[in-house]
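Title: Prediction job returns without error message
Component: structure pipeline
Severity: low
Priority: P3
Assignee: unassigned

Description:
Job completed but the reporter wants confirmation the result is attached to the right record. Sequence as submitted:
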Amino acid sequence: MRILVTGGSGFIGSHIIDVLLEQGHDVTNIDIKPAHRQDIKHLNGSILDRSLIDAVVRDVDAIYHIGGFSNINFVKAHPVETIELNVLSTTYLLDACRKHKVSHFIYASSVYAFDRSGHLYTTSKALSERIIEDFNSLYNIPYTILRYATVYGPRNRNADVIYIFVKKAIEGDPLEIHGSGMQKRNFIHVRDLAEASVKALENTEAVNKKLVIAHSMDISILELAERVKDIVNPDIEVRFIESTRDNDYKGAVDNIEASYNILQWKPSISIENGLAEMHIDIISEMRTDVKIY
């Protein structure tokens, strides 16, 4: 199939492109950053450029809409730009799908889309989900909404808690936990997430569904810190600091097993193996950054 991926130069999008290519698909990427590999068609441009979107969508069978702002601190500092990029880009792509009869629109949402703790980021995801459903009702555009849990792994943006904890442990710095550390996450490795995302393209049971892409095992931030200690550096300290973060997600993740059944898929990478991989990757990254004079 001819697949368009928006934001395919980023963390999640680049891994989805890897799996799509492994499955033999013809991939086009739209992003303002260079592609992570050379064997795809890459268009350097904005997903708010309606003429660019219209030109490329006429030649594809399906779309993975991954692009958008996701860093909570950036979103808080740029509210208007967040709504413009995250919501209007979805609408522009759907309108192009309507005109050019695209067979499947796959959207990267969040398990926290309806969690009020996330503020504008989660609001932008919830709004986009509603718009997707409306386009389906009005114009019969097949869709799949993928509600991603917290993702980690290679090529991440170096700002997620797993990356921060592992790097601090390598450097011997204390692991700082905001609040009690009882906040739980269903961390999922990016390779597992990418494979599940491509399963959604291949499985007709996923059409017009909202699917949760998460690990069935949840883990508290405190437990995560203890596992990082065990794997990376048993001598480091875990510190608790008063939380001033009013955007921390608190809700539970539901419907995980139902999504597994629809996709005929389950994640294969445990948190222990994922942490060990991150340990190796970050050490390699740090060695590469060392300058020899």
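Comment from assignee: result matches the submitted record. The domain at 2-289 is CATH 3.40.50.720 (Rossmann fold).
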